[in-house]
Amino acid sequence: MDSTFRQIPPVVLQALKADLLDGDRVALGRAITLIESKRADDRKQAGLLIDAILPKTGSSIRIGITGVPGAGKSSFIEVFGTMLTASGKRVAVLSIDPASSKSKGSILGDKTRMETLSKNELAYIRPSSSGTIPGGVASHTREAILLCEAAGYDVIIVETVGVGQSETVVKEMVDYFLLLMLAGGGDELQGIKRGIMEMADHILINKADGANPEAAKRAAKAYRNAVHLFPAHEAGWTVPVATCSALEKTGIKSVWSEIEAFRQLTAGGWFEQNRRLQRIQWFHALVRSALELNFFGKANIQEAISEKEALISARKISVRKAVQELFES
Ligand code: GDP
Fold it and tell me: Ligand 1 centre from 188 Cα, in Å?
């Protein structure tokens, strides 16, 4: 973090805000680094910055993209994002990986992802943040979305990088949730949890190319049948199930048409209502993590917990009593 932040904070913060609102990518990067910082003084400034840019946020479409590793998420985003920038849209890509503190670098480190898009003037790509507090990563990404919006990005793509645990987190911060799948052998519904399919606003079978188009079509049919059995979408939306190829760039345009149709269908109703609900969910999540931090940050609390563990192990105290005493101490 640039130390000038702390030397003359108000002036630097003003300049950062101005550059950010001007769409300056360096300023955006610095602002995201600031909100991810764990230093108390940075956190305070991050709060000021977010408050200051809040009126300039909210106008993008936020799209979540998930799928098993290898489904082609980054290839799809590369093609989809490039297509959007070709029509003048500014596209930001954020990745979220709640497990990043454990697996840091291992997923993203070994390949250059979205090579073309990362060189595109109208695109901004920010890899996963490395939060350590529960709820921290999600909260950072939510703030990063706001910063990208303030910087003038029209489409914000939030990609899940973690495996199997980040879907709900992403669903709760986007307007449209896209599930990328592959035509597998055998039972088409295996490999991805039903709950995740139920969350999807759009299911796309990727890699419908080479010898694969027929298998992809069959998979799409099977998923379409499965989707019919799910509870109806809250917004009255019919979840599209389609095939595409990020490699051959087919089936990509219609994804955007569907998103536009969804936006139209939900504008002035479900869309805003969902965002309101998401803000409330975010608030509750932060209250919970603040409570946890506050409690576990108390002096000698770890010691007290170890003492209670010993007493519980030796059956000298009930679990209920141990908890009561911890909170009373
Ligand atoms: P991610 O882990 O979901 O981000 O997947 P990647 O985008 O890294 O893709 C995984 C592999 O699948 C890479 O080797 C890609 O080149 C390949 N791939 C991605 N999309 C397609 C596609 O549409 N068709 C084919 N044949 N291969 C693809």
Answer: 19
88 touches ligand 1 (CB under 6 Å): no
- Taking the CA atoms of 102, 97, 74 and 82 in sequence, report the sign of the dihedral they define: negative
CB 293 within 8 A of CB 310: no
Give me ligand 1 centre to Cα 80, in Å.
13
What was the pLDDT predicted at 72? 93
With a 6 A CB cut-off, is 142 part of the ligand 1 pocket?
A: no
Q: Can you state the angle between helices 25-36 and 136-150, rounded to 10 degrees?
A: 160
Whether ligand 1 lies within 6 angstroms of the CB of 69 is answered as yes
User: What is the best residue among 66, 74, 75 to mutate for testing ligand 1's pocket, by most ligand atoms within 8 Å of CB?
Assistant: 75
Cα separation of 321 and 106, whole Å? 43
Q: Could you write out the DSSP letters of every residue in 129-190? A: P---STTHHHHHHHHHHHHHHHTT-SEEEEEE-SSSSSHHHHHTT-SEEEEEEE--SS-TTT
pLDDT value, residue 273: 97
Give every residue of the chain whose pLDDT is below 50, as ranges: 1-8, 101-110, 186
Query: What pLDDT is attached to residue 102?
Result: 45
Global pTM?
0.88
- How far apart CA 200 and CA 198 sit, in angstroms, is 6
pLDDT of residue 129: 62
What pLDDT score was predicted for residue 246? Answer: 97
**Six token digits for residue 276:** 């309101």
Predicted local distance difference test score (pLDDT) of residue 157: 97
CA of 284 to the centre of ligand 1 (A): 37
Closest residue by Cα to atom 5, ligand 1, is 72
Residue 55 DSSP symbol: G
Q: Is 266 in the pocket of ligand 1 (CB under 6 A)?
A: no
Q: Residue 30 is inside which H or E element, if any?
A: helix 25-36
CA-closest residue to ligand 1 atom 11: 70
- Residue 74 has what pLDDT? 93
Report the alpha-carbon distance of residue 124 to residue 153 in Å, rounded: 9
